[in-house]
Design a protein that fits this description.
This protein is mainly alpha-helical and about 1000 residues long. About 70% of the residues lie in helices and about 5% in strands. One of its GO terms (cellular component) is endosome.
């Protein structure tokens, strides 16, 4: 059953990206009074924010648009020139991507130039600028380059887009030549054709060749930048330092794939900019395959850092030998095998891990605010992060494994698929738990953020005071104080992404790793990471629990649908939450093409769901009802049933699942099954009305067993032994009484003669079946019709009695009796009667006499009377079940014990008797007398109580008032109680 809904926000963001929507401008946060420091902080902070914006735009718009391309929503591929039409519809998005890539090139060039200019600052402008590493800026540069790498990988693996573009590009070249030579013939302005040609050529050269990363890194820079050895060493040192830190963290924790991609991008960028290959750095980064050989980027795209290095490194043979390549290849294969082996193991452990985490969440979040201390708050935050980390671990495993299955075109075993189903449900259950506790999580995150923020401010303020207390106020000290002031001011306002970027950039300008102790510097790094995590916790939960990768694994979805009934551990409502994540990658509703794609995907998924699960569920329920109704025809199966694998219990649980949502529609499973059973029972009953009793029993059983409420078919009721129809008999009553004989003792009709081998009978049960079929109303019609027929027969009977031969014989006997009355002592002789009967019998020998007809007429009259009796008995039989609800007429309650139990007074009984005797009870009830008396008593009691309190200064009541209250209370009980 499909029901249209309003658009639901599929991105279940538990918390906003920042606690406050007010995002201050960077310039408003940098007022230290030191122009150089302020400008440097503004420059780098703005560039970092620009990279964040570009990353979000790429992730939310362009990645999905490129990967989803090829969905034939409107069926244009089946028509001639469909590929050209599809690319033509996609061209505006390619143009936007081209503009976006150019913007990335500009930002990249700006970052490199700004970093080089900052490193080259003279001491007169900023003392010892070279000591400030600006790690966050370098990390943002790597993230920017990773965007271009992702584009290259997506386009490279998007074979449909490549094929369509080649066809379109060839067709476009031919068409453009024709249009340029004859623009008037095609109605095209020649001034607009050249920009279009240039755009298509640029898209072909930059985007479709999948060289965005190389083209970006090979941009032209100033000669002094490329020959600057100090900048060369700085970039190399930063890259190695970032990798070493990544490697240390990856040893004990989940490797950060985004950071690794940024590091590889920086390493190769160093090679392209300075046209030299640092063998040591490349080999160091090459060892990343030991921790992370391959990982999922987006969609079905899998990226291997080492393979990317092999494709882009110059002089590969000099840097990477064959043994290293073989080791990397072996690590990739081992990772795939390990993931396949880990799948069932993780599915088994997921239940215990999830239950433990849920119990901890319920325990910690149910604590009142008075009980929450700093330690409790830390436990809560660690609990949140534990759930996110586990969901991220499972999601990474699934994405990497399933994407490799698609790329390498390998099949997954049934057990592994079942394990993958459980992991997806676990991921979505974690998201549901976050959604359930969203308000408590928001409150805890706000408190934890305030604590971390206060801790940072305390550390910065303490260092600020320490430096100010020193007597030496050099230019560097002033610059450091200015940077610390900016950081402190940024953290003192609301917590937002902008404030955190400005604060962290200001601390790097202050060279915090040198002015703070090592432990304090590490603590500050942890606090910044914690603040960034807490301020974007909702986005992190959404990203880690997003299962939109199922869009490219619709065969996997089909396998889940087909296994729902047999798989007793499946939870369809959670899996549908994962399916609904697909909608987030299909674009916004502003684009008409995106709307068509969404509708196409939704219909495809619904057809799979209906075919593989809904219809199968309906058939299973119908089969179970049918077997249960006919269970009396077979021997009982005495094999004990396993309650965990009982199909009946499984069906009950599946029918109790609430309506699931598929994009913007609701699918009510229970109502779908009800409509299926209603339609099936109606159609089968219409074909064979004698099965109506069976399907009615199945409908009642469906209500009792599965709580399925089915509409009645309203079709005539029949049974297998239905017998002749009462209406047909009534309609042909004349032929019926002639053709049937009535057995008075057994109360049934039997056919006199038949052309077939069987004789038809009409019993009470047959009449009851007809009444059930047509309703009780046919009894009146049938009996009325029978009496009308009797009226005619009695008239004929009276006419036959006036026959002359019979009449003369009767007159003769009558005259004899009157003449010999005295002699016969007024007693008619028996011998005379016997002679009369014998004479009457002799009259029937002649053919022209009507006596035989009289006998037949009397028999027919008796048959009609028997038929009326049969209809009456059939009516009683048909209403036998309903009669069970009638009270026993002999069980009449006695008035005396009821009156005694109610303790009614003789006066009350007398009044009631008089009212009933005079038929005035209804009129008396309309006066609402007892309600009026009750209100009057309550009013007098209230007045008496108020008067006693006002007249007495003590707590005790006045004696007269107490007596009056007691009398009123007694009167109220006696009058109103007797009346009720």
């Amino acid at each position: 059953m499909l029901v249209f809904l309003g658009k639901k926000d599929k991105e279940k963001v538990i918390l906003n990206d920042c606690f406050y929507h007010v995002k201050p401008k960077v310039a408003e946060l940098t007022h230290s009074g030191n122009a150089v420091v302020d400008k440097c902080i503004i420059t780098f902070s703005t560039l970092i924010m620009e990279v964040d914006i570009l990353m979000e735009k790429a992730r939310s718009t362009f990645y999905n648009a490129l990967i989803v391309y090829g969905e034939d929503a409107d069926g244009c591929l089946s028509s001639e020139g469909g590929t050209v039409k599809m690319i033509g519809q996609f061209l505006p998005q390619l143009q936007q991507l081209h503009v976006f890539v150019n913007r990335c090139y500009e930002v990249f060039h700006n970052i490199i130039s700004q970093l080089h200019a900052f490193l080259s600052l003279k001491s007169s402008v900023l003392e010892q600028a070279q000591e400030r590493k600006m790690m966050r800026m370098w990390h943002s540069l790597g993230l920017l380059l990773s965007i271009l790498i992702s584009f290259d990988e997506i386009i490279h693996q998007q074979s449909t887009l490549q094929q369509h573009w080649q066809s379109y590009y060839k067709y476009q070249q031919i068409a453009m030549q024709l249009v340029v030579h004859n623009p008037s013939q095609f109605g095209a302005e020649s001034d607009l054709l050249q920009p279009l040609q240039r755009l298509i050529a640029n898209i072909d050269q930059s985007i479709m060749k999948a060289n965005l990363y190389k083209n970006c890194c090979k941009q032209m820079f100033e000669r002094n930048l490329q020959e600057d050895l100090q900048f060369n060493e700085r970039m190399k040192g930063i890259t190695i330092e970032m990798f070493e830190k990544w490697d240390r963290v990856a040893t004990d924790d989940v490797p950060d794939k985004r950071k690794l991609m940024a590091i590889v991008a920086l390493a190769l960028c160093h090679m392209f900019i300075f046209r030299t290959v640092d063998k040591k750095m490349m080999r160091t980064i090459w060892n990343s395959y030991k921790k992370l050989p391959t990982f999922h980027v987006c969609g079905y795209v899998i990226w291997s850092p080492c393979e990317f290095m092999l494709e882009n490194l110059t002089e590969v043979d000099r840097v990477i030998d064959k043994k290293m390549i073989a080791a990397m290849t072996a690590a990739k294969s081992a990772q795939f095998i390990q993931n396949m082996e880990a799948l069932p193991r993780e599915a088994t452990n997921a239940i215990n891990v999830l239950d433990e985490w849920k119990c901890d969440m319920n325990e910690k979040l149910n604590e009142t605010s008075k009980q929450i201390s700093r330690d409790h708050l830390a436990l809560r935050i660690s609990l949140f992060l534990r759930g996110i980390r586990y969901a991220d671990l499972l999601c990474r495993l699934l994405k990497t494994l399933m994407s490799r299955l698609v790329v390498e075109q390998k099949a997954i075993s049934r057990s592994s698929a079942s394990a993958a189903f459980r992991l997806i449900e676990t991921i979505k259950e974690i998201e549901e738990i976050f959604w359930k506790w969203r308000y408590d999580i928001l409150e805890s995150c706000q408190e934890a953020s305030q604590y971390c923020n206060a801790k940072l401010i305390h550390l910065i303020s303490a260092m600020h005071q320490t430096i100010r207390s020193e007597s030496d106020f050099s230019y560097r000290t002033v610059d450091t104080l200015s940077a610390l002031t900016v950081a402190e001011n940024a953290l003192s306002s609301s917590i937002s992404r902008t404030n955190l970027i400005v604060a962290s950039t200001a601390l790097e300008m202050a060279c915090y790793t040198k002015i703070f102790r090592g432990s304090d510097a590490e603590k500050m790094d942890e606090l910044f990471v914690r603040l960034e995590t807490l301020s974007s916790l909702g986005n992190i939960v959404y990203r880690t629990c997003n299962c939109s990768f199922l869009f490219w694994h619709r065969s996997f979805i089909a396998a889940y649908f087909s296994a729902i009934i047999e798989d007793t551990n499946s939870r369809p409502e959670l899996f549908f939450d994962a399916i609904n994540d697909i909608e987030t990658i299909l674009g916004s509703d502003e684009n008409e093409l995106n709307i068509k794609v969404k509708e196409s995907v939704r219909e495809e998924l619904y057809e799979l769901y209906e075919k593989l699960y809904l219809k199968k569920l309906c058939e299973t329920v119908e089969t179970d009802l049918r077997l249960t109704v006919h269970s009396h025809l077979q021997l009982d199966d005495r094999t004990p049933k396993d309650p965990m694998h009982d199909i009946n219990m499984r069906l009950v649980n599946l029918l109790q699942v609430p309506a699931v949502q598929l994009f913007d529609r609701l699918i009510d499973i229970k109502r779908y099954v009800e409509k299926y059973l209603e339609s099936t029972f109606y159609n089968l009953t219409a074909v064979a009305l004698h099965d109506s009793n069976t399907y009615m029993a199945m409908s009642l059983l469906a209500k009792q067993k599965y709580n399925l409420i089915l509409c009645q078919s309203r079709l005539p009721f029949q049974k297998l032994d239905q017998g002749p129809d009462v209406l047909f008999v009534a309609r042909n009553i004349d032929s019926f009484v002639e053709s049937y004989d009535y057995n008075l003792n057994e109360q049934f009709f039997i056919e006199k003669d038949s052309k077939s081998k069987q004789l038809t009978i009409l019993t009470v049960e047959h009449v009851a079946n007809s009444i059930r079929t047509h309703g009780m109303g046919i009894m009146h019609t049938t009996i009325n019709h029978a009496y009308q027929f009797l009226k005619k027969k009695f008239y004929i009977f009276s006419q036959l009695l006036y026959d002359d031969r019979i009449r003369n014989q009767l007159i003769k006997d009558e005259r004899y009796f009157h003449e010999n009355a005295e002699k016969l002592e007024k007693m008619y002789p028996v011998s005379r009667a016997q002679r009369f009967n014998a004479a009457i019998r002799l009259l029937g020998v002649a053919d022209d006499f009507y006596l035989d007809k009289l006998r037949i007429l009397i028999t027919e009259i008796g048959n009609v009377m028997g038929y009326v009796r049969l209809v009456r008995s059939g009516g009683v039989e048909a209403s036998m079940q309903s009669l069970g609800f009638l009270p026993n007429l002999d069980d009449v309650p006695s008035f005396e014990p009821l009156a005694v139990n109610a303790k009614l007074s003789s006066e009350t009984i007398s009044v009631a008797f008089i009212l009933v005797l005079l038929n005035q009870h209804t009129y008396f009830s309309s006066l609402n007398w007892f309600q009026s008396v009750a209100c009057e008593c309550e009013e007098q009691i209230a007045n008496a109580s108020f008067g006693s309190k006002s007249s007495s200064t003590k707590n005790t009541l006045d004696p007269s008032a107490a007596i009056r209250l007691a009398k009123l209370d007694q009167y109220q009980k006696s009058r109103i109680g007797s009346g009720s």
